[in-house]
Records
---
Amino acid sequence: MICFHAGQAGEQGYTLIEIILVIVIMSVMTMMIAPSFFSATGTTAGQEARRLTQALRLAADEAVLTGRPMRWTAREHSYSFESPDSESVWQLQDESPFHAYSLPGGIRILAVQPVETTAITETTDQKESEPVLAHLLLLPQGIVEPSSIVLADRGGEGDQVTILLQPGPAGISIEKEPIE
């Protein structure tokens, strides 16, 4: 095969147009791939807030359907659900979706308002090194007292997302969610 190349014989290399074209193509491909790569590498406070919102809605529905309260227990890096046994002692739930859940690295529960005013007691299954931040009761008659839960990225330095718990049919919602 014979190739003709404009220029002197023995001259090899790329033209400026070819180099610029390759750089443009690589830039476009990087812009398309980078967002999916970075979103897959870590969980955000917004994603965890959506997960927690769904779990709280399920727990609230469970309380209504069974006629027995559910209690959400918050720790800085984890949360769990409990329900009372026949002797009214809070027992840790170990079935999905109510099993104890550890937040991914960098995500933490920054605040829970209001904190239950009664003494925060733990069941025998819950003795852990991380102290309890708060308990929220999900009653069979629905949410009685408005509350909020704040989740934060990077130890409170990054995005913060607030989950609102209010009386009524749309009682558990995300107040403000950052753009991801």
Note: Residues 16-41 form the longest helix (26 residues).
---
Amino acid sequence: MNRLALFVPLVLFAGLSLVLLLGLDKDPSELPSALVGEPFPAFNLPALSDESRRLTEQDIKGDVMLINVWATWCFACRIEHPMLNNLSAQGVKIVGLNYKDQRASAQTWLADRGDPYVVNIFDAEGSLGIDLGVYGAPETYLVDAQGIIRHRRVGVVDERVWNAEFSELYERLTGGKQ
């Protein structure tokens, strides 16, 4: 009996190692989202630019758009921001979700770097981020005209990612018009 007990930790270690090894081929930027195919969560939050203006999920319906989770404390958001400015200049509608940030800092950040957003939701407490299952910034959601989430990207959206993950679906949803 004592000899058998010696092998239990070895078997447990081998089993755990196998589980971890199988997870190594997963791309962390392709985290699944239970919300893909579901309506964008209901919210009622202030606009970044005007504290008295309230925004709801109705403000993101009617057009195909990107919802971009960003913050001034997010280093990767600095890398991503020029691509968002470029997409906006091409006619892609982008709504910002300023996540767990300071209003004045975020406003200054946009004034200095350009503002690609048609509107910015100010989520200081992170409540909408929680409802979306946000892991951190940046995250980007492609939402159709009915407010249904069609794709989610955790991490920077650059030209390579746009072409590989978003462009074709965006074109299909917009019918090729922006």
Note: The CA atoms of residues 87 and 116 lie 8 Å apart.
---
Amino acid sequence: MIAIIDYDAGNLKSVQKALEFLGEETVITRERDRILDAEKVILPGVGAFGDAMNKLHHFQLVDVIKEVVAKRTPLLGICLGLQLLYERSDESDGVEGLSILKGEIIKIPDSNGLKIPHMGWNSLDIKPGTKLYRGIENNSYVYFVHSYYLNAKNETEVAATTHYSTTIHASVEKENVFACQFHPEKSGDVGLKILKNFAELK
């Protein structure tokens, strides 16, 4: 069973639909016991960093997510879900993130000819040997929608990068914590393969 954390953050149904297409059993929930009993957990999200943290606190999910990590259950953050795993974001000054991973979320710098948000397909430079990208060719394209990007403190945790005005840490892996800035559920066959790799983690 894969639990998709519900904190009123959007894109839950599209993530669920992609997983069910792969034959995975899923539940969208904010119930502590159902999340902690799940074999895998996904923290999705679209929207603003500060609003999302407020909702996680409101639904008493902050400690639940940290318990998921502590009990070594595989956790996948998607888009805003990746950003929330970190300490802070330029988008919401003074708001503390989950601080599960070290790093910060920074505004994508302006660059001639590039629009912000970074919206559309872009290629990934994938680090060899990563679990989430097993069987996926380097420079595969995935779908992004974001105005802020991850600058991870520990580059050893970066599983894939992309370039848009600057080098963007597009995906991370640390022990049982996985995350991607792009939307695998909107990234065609490559995205489905990423979700399948996550679902099959031991």
Note: The helical segments are 12-21, 32-37, 49-58, 62-70, 80-84, 188-199.
